[in-house]
Amino acid sequence: MPNLLLTGIIAAAFALVHIVGKDLRFLQRTPRSIWLSLAGGVSLAYVFVHLLPELAEWQKASARHIGANAFAVESHIYLAALLGLVVFYGLDRLVRQSKRKNRDVGQPGSSPRVFWIHLSSYAVYSVLIGYLLVHREEADLRGLVIYAIALGLHFVVNDQGLREYHGDAYDRTGRWLLAAAPPLGWLIGTGFALSPLLIALVFGFLAGGLVLNVLKEELPEDRESRFGALAAGAAGFALLLLIAR
Length: 245
Fold this sequence. Notes:
Elements: H1 4-20, H2 34-66, H3 70-104, H4 112-132, H5 141-166, H6 168-191, H7 196-218, H8 227-244
């Protein structure tokens, strides 16, 4: 198990991202901040160069643990990744439709019901990220630092996206809910361990959610995203990951 003090500090840093995000005014503009696109590229590189190979290691560990056919376990893990992508795509669609309906009747933002569904889902997502600080296949310092950098930048991107979706409601209540989630996940992880197969499925779900959450922030035309920054972040972090192996 990784050093609990260090992982606890990282969980607190994840929380701090949500708390101070509203004061990072240089990120809240159009065209999209070059730093957000750069961070998105880092997250994508982490998924495809580091997290997916790590899933393969979890797949092997899970197969040994349950004595199952390796291909069958691998299928379950990547189905979990597909589920993560689909779930967060559905949430994104739900919020956009709610905002469109409210705009048609002259009301800002999404409905309170949709707001809480959206934020609660992201809170669960963040709890899982906090939990995986403690329970990971690569529990060494190098793997932990990579995880902290990639997921910390991912939280920066998500925080600004949720603020754009929900405005003042996010700053009043949503950010505090999400700030509490990573430390809560870390706390659960220090006292409770899932089976290797379930941890692998959580990793798969996280990978799918990461891909969707980065792309949904970069693809909309009205964001005027910075492709060069996204590509530079992806290429640069991928190179660092390959060198660090």
